[in-house]
Amino acid sequence: MRLTGGQMVAEYLIKEGVPYFVGIPGHGCLGLVDAFLGREEHICILQVRSEQCAVHLADGYYRACGRPLACFTSIGPGAMNTVIGLATCFVDSVPVLVINGDTHTYMFGKGVLQEIERKRPADNFRVLEPITKQVWQVTEVGQLPNILARAFNVMMTGRRGPVAIALPMDVQAEAAEVSLPEPAQREPAGRVQPDPEAVQQAAHLLAQAQRPVILAGGGINHAEAWAELRTVAELLEAAVITTLHGKGCFPEDHPLSGWLGGSKGTHVGNALAKSADVLLAVGCRFADLNTSSYRHGVTFNIPPTKLIHADLDPEEIGKNYPVEVGLVGDAKSVLEQLAVALREMDVPSKPEYRAEITRRREDWFRFLAKYRESDRVPVTISRALKETREFLDRDAILCYAAGNPQAQILQEFPFYEPRTNLTSGGFSTMGWTLPAALGAKLACPDRQVLGVPGDGDLLMSIHELATAVQYNIPVVMLCLNNSSWQSINDLQVAVYGPDRRIACDFLQPDGTLYSPDFKAIAEGFGCYAEKVSRAEEIKPALQRAFASGRPAVIEVLVNKEFPYSGGEAVGWWDVPVPEYLTVLRQEYEQAQAEERLI
Fold first, then answer.
1. How many structural domains is the chain composed of?
2. What is the mean pLDDT of residues 145-170?
3. pLDDT at 493
4. How far apart are CA 177 and CA 316, in angstroms?
5. Cβ 480 vs Cβ 379: under 8 Å
6. Is there a domain that residue 580 lies in?
7. What is the predicted pLDDT for the residue at 406?
8. What are the Cα distances from residue 307, in Å, to 98, 242, 312, 568?
9. Quick one: which H or E segment has residue 184?
10. 116-142, pLDDT tens digit by residue?
11. What is d(CA 592, CA 577) in angstroms, rounded to the nearest whole number?
């Protein structure tokens, strides 16, 4: 059939079952967008208010359902606006396809409107190379079918991640006789299998362990290995702790749940991790937040703890810790094979260890009670989260980004079902919550979807309330407002001392706190909105917001008094202290000396 470049994109996305094409039109993508006319029954164009948020929306969609979306932009600023979204996806291993308009091929190097060309002609796309798995620049329309198929293969196989296609304006409009690939004939099937001998070695170590711990990462969700994880944990009677993205892959009301370790973790997670004799890490990369910046004995004791590390990406194995056994494979395959091997072995029962896991988990929540049960006004974030968890359905999806909401949700908010914990992770992106929640709601329209941004996070993408109202995507935002970059303010106090506060509170010239009226702003967009400050007001406000059937914002004024302003720093995070803070610098250097940067 004879198709233009734009039509090839439209028809191939339909073949791949992509339901939404998300972006903002511009002169650089006119030929691309025009090709979607008449195809509205098969794929819907969604207009967002910034290209960054187009990628965040696609990000949230994938995390909620495991299927990718595609985004489009014009040339120049439109393409550059995707950088933060793509970097977020790249670090967190989230697939998304971005198609950027590009300079006409016959104008390469002329310096036309929005072209970057002083080093190389039509060089815009190179900005995206470090933050994508691969970037293609199409120079002839006949190349496009093969590139589209390869793009899906690259982003959906191996360690998943974003890809981008630079599509020149003339290529969008030119036509060629082509046969579009059938996805089923181009996409690899099956899973990467671990080495059988290595599986046996790992199983023997685990069967002999007295204090086994499983560290479950985001790879569990990519592989949909939830049942296999539970099987192996129960066979071993092993404690299960998670990473930021692993949280939710194992029910946190299960008797073997040990919550999180690390600097944003919990006492229970850190205690279990550092006392493990054998650690099985699956689908994780041992980032600094999960390891307490590699400080020995705070979260992990590797060695003497024996590490079995399973990951789809062989480069991660042995990168940050030495291994006893390295298993290269898909998380589902690895856990399936470990379960088979363990069933053939004598695995002793561990009633005292199980009881310890339960006791440590209960001790953690007793420790948090002074925050979670507090009747302070304004309400503590801890109490607000407790009220919220009691209101929400078991399978409700929660979206949140960097800041105190993230730290405290990780520590205090239990998740019970897979793909209900959606958060920006290794790139720690703010402005993520609202657009990601829109994507999650599009993916799971029959589920409760709640965003929990701080005021700083929400203000970075508040314009997407217009998108929510335009398409009637009924997400609810529970905005925790403390008129500050409060997580950084708390970090200043914790690391540098109580007199070292600067540049965090939103202060007016007279020294009083400033905050916009989120309720009025949300109503101006057409949302349902409320403002509350007391614990007993939160559940009724959530009930009314969800019952409205509209996009909704609940502004919650939260406590700013340290330590009630944030969570507990239970691990270690390497935040350098200036030399002029002499005593604190000495303490920092002593702690830093205990890091194991192997």
1. 3
2. 97
3. 87
4. 44
5. no
6. no
7. 94
8. 38, 15, 16, 28
9. helix 183-186
10. 999 999 999 999 999 999 999 999 999
11. 11
Q: Which residues contact 509 (CB under 8 A, 6 or more apart)?
A: none
149 and 32 share one domain: yes
Burial class (CB in 10 A: 0-12, 13-18, 19+), 224: middle
pLDDT digits over 315-349, tens only? 999 999 999 999 999 999 999 999 999 999 999 99
Residue 447 lies in a domain: yes
Record the tokens describing residue 453, joined without a space.
């941004």
Task: Give 307-311's long-range contacts (Cβ < 8 A, gap of 24+).
Answer: 307/279, 307/281, 308/202, 308/205, 308/206, 308/278, 308/279, 308/280, 308/281, 309/281, 310/194, 310/202, 310/280, 310/281, 310/282, 310/283, 310/334, 311/219, 311/281, 311/282, 311/283, 311/284, 311/285
d(CA 461, CA 439): 14
Asked if the structure places residue 482 within a domain, the reply is yes
> Does one domain contain both 320 and 445?
no
| Statement to judge: residues 309 and 181 lie in one domain | no
331 Cβ neighbours under 8 A, 6+ residues apart: 219, 220, 222, 223, 225, 228, 229, 282, 283, 310, 312
Strands 2-4 and 175-177: antiparallel
265 vs 292: CA distance, rounded Å: 9
pLDDT, residue 423, reads 97
pLDDT at 598: 56
Grade residue 365 by pLDDT with cuts at 50, 70 and 90.
very high
Regarding whether 102 and 229 lie in a shared domain, the answer is: no
Look at residues 359, 392, 423 and tell me which one is the last residue of a structural domain. 359
Each residue's pLDDT tens digit, 348-362: 999 999 999 999 999
The percentage of residues in the chain with a pLDDT greater than 70, rounded to a whole number, is: 100
* CA-wise closest residue to 114 among 77, 148, 157: 77
Containing H/E element for 338? helix 331-343
Are residues 200 and 182 part of one domain? no
> What does the pLDDT average to over 301-323?
97
Helices (H), 373-470: 381-391, 404-412, 433-443, 455-459, 465-470
Are 343 and 453 part of one and the same domain? no
- Residue 576 inside a domain? The answer is no
Whichever domain contains 139, its CATH number is: 3.40.50.970
If residue 72 lies in a helix (H) or strand (E), which one and from where to where? strand 70-73
Task: Tokens 């299998």: give the residue.
Answer: 193
Spatial strand order of the sheet with 70-73 comes to 44-47, 20-23, 70-73, 97-102, 163-168, 134-137
Please indicate whether residue 250 or residue 190 has the higher confidence score (pLDDT). Answer: 250
Instruction: Give the residue from 160, 186, 212 where a domain finishes.
Output: 186
Helix (H) or strand (E) holding 326: strand 325-328
- Tell whether omega for the bond before 251 is within 30 degrees of 0, i.e. cis: no
Contact 48, 55 (CB under 8 A): no
Range of the domain at 448: 373-557
Same domain membership, residue 526 and residue 395: yes
Average pLDDT over all residues of the chain: 96
- Predicted confidence band of residue 568 (pLDDT cuts 50, 70, 90): confident
Same domain, 42 and 109: yes
Q: Domain holding 322: CATH number?
A: 3.40.50.1220
Q: CA-to-CA distance for 502 and 284, rounded, in angstroms?
A: 35
